[in-house]
Amino acid sequence: MNWSEQVVLVTGGTGSFGKKFTELMLREYRPQKLIVFSRDELKQHDMRCAGFDHPSLRYFLGDVRDPQRLARAFSGVTVVVHAAALKQVPACEYNPFEAIQTNVIGGRNVIDAAIDQGVQRILALSTDKAVNPVNLYGATKLCAEKMFVQANAYAGAKDTRFSCARYGNVVGSRGSVIPVFQEQRKLGRITVTDPRMTRFWLTLEQGVKFVVGCMERMHGGEIFVPKIPSMKLVEMAETIAPECDIEYVGIRPGEKLHEVLVSEDEARNTVELSDMYVIQPAHSWWKKENWNSARPLPDGFRYGSDSNQHWMTSDELQELIALGNGPAERPRLVAAQRAWA
Fold first, then answer.
1. Class (C level, CATH) for 3-167+203-226+261-303+328-340
2. What is the pairing mode between strands 245-248 and 270-272?
3. Most confident stretch, 181-195, 235-249, 294-308
4. Is 141 a catalytic residue?
């Protein structure tokens, strides 16, 4: 892809992912135009004041629940990253209709607008919680994955193509357990659900770069899964607050002991590359030769946080936390914009 020729739009553009995506686009890829689509005017204002203010950047107020507004926003757009979602597990459990309206119906609206407006590539963000879901958030993201994969059949002979990127927990993002541990450290006591619990981890910038790479390589219909490390939550707590006592509070409703990024059933249609797994659609329109250079997975393969070959050490976690916090955004943006000018 020649990014300098692309008009790029990111839904949920004022969230953790959207801000980092915008920063990376301005710093390294420099698209013709970059549109931040979100529903909160204050967050857009704060984002602009934080340094996200470039001649190529546009702020577009709207909600993915509003199909007419999406159609207007997608006019002339060539690339869409769909990051808008309700993603707090307890909030989705308590407000199920709201979660479905945003994560499922909103996804449908994005698909319809993209096809109608002739967007070329759309990549939707998903989560490990979509695999064998035990909470509503995971169930809505599983539905969204199914819709975005099958949307390629709806697009038909048009050039519009849809794929998904599925990855694990993001270090330091809103809702991450790491900021919770850092706050609890001040009180001298850390709460952990279960000593056996494991999770996948990556930084926000790693997630954004993975998404950009997937958009450059997608054929349409794939679910991309990065190879990322796992860590036990108790080891994470001991690394962040080694001087604190740990209290085990038990697994809460909607939580899993371990997360899975590729299930055994999905593995039959999955191929492996050096840096990721590609889950191929099991539909007649899919061309198997799209990824014929990749390796098929062995029978019974499962990519779970408890059986991962890459376990993160305490030193690696500290490095990830440092990368996740990173330098202030404004100086990096100002330097990138001066270089661009």
1. alpha beta
2. unpaired
3. 294-308
4. no
Helix or strand (DSSP H, E) at 9: strand 7-11
For residue 47, what are the CA distances in angstroms to 59, 82, 314? 10, 19, 33
Q: Which of 24, 260, 237, 9 is nearest to 110 (CA)?
A: 9
- pLDDT the model gives residue 270: 97
Give the whole-angstrom CA distance, residue 309 versus residue 130. 22
User: CA dist 68 to 72, 116, 151, Å?
Assistant: 6, 11, 19
**pLDDT at 78 exceeding the cut of 80:** yes
Concatenated DSSP letters of 31-94: -SEEEEEES-HHHHHHHHHTT---TTEEEEE--TT-HHHHHHHTTT--EEEE------HHHHHH
CA–CA separation, 175 and 173 (whole Å): 6
Measure the CA–CA gap between 192 and 269, rounded to whole angstroms. Answer: 36
The pLDDT, as a whole number, for residue 326 is 46
Residues 25/67, Cβ–Cβ less than 8 Å: no
Q: SS3 for 300?
A: coil
pLDDT tens readout for residues 20-30: 999 999 999 99
Selected catalytic residue, list 19, 87, 129, 232 = 129
Cα 267 from Cα 136, distance rounded (Å): 24
Give the pLDDT band of residue 333 (cuts 50, 70, 90). low
Q: What's the rounded Cα separation, in Å, for the pair 314 and 320? A: 10
pLDDT digits (tens, 9 = 90+) for 163-190: 999 998 888 676 678 888 888 999 899 9
Residue 30, both tokens: 């420099």
Who contacts 197 (Cβ-Cβ below 8 Å, separation ≥6)? 232, 233, 234, 251, 257, 258
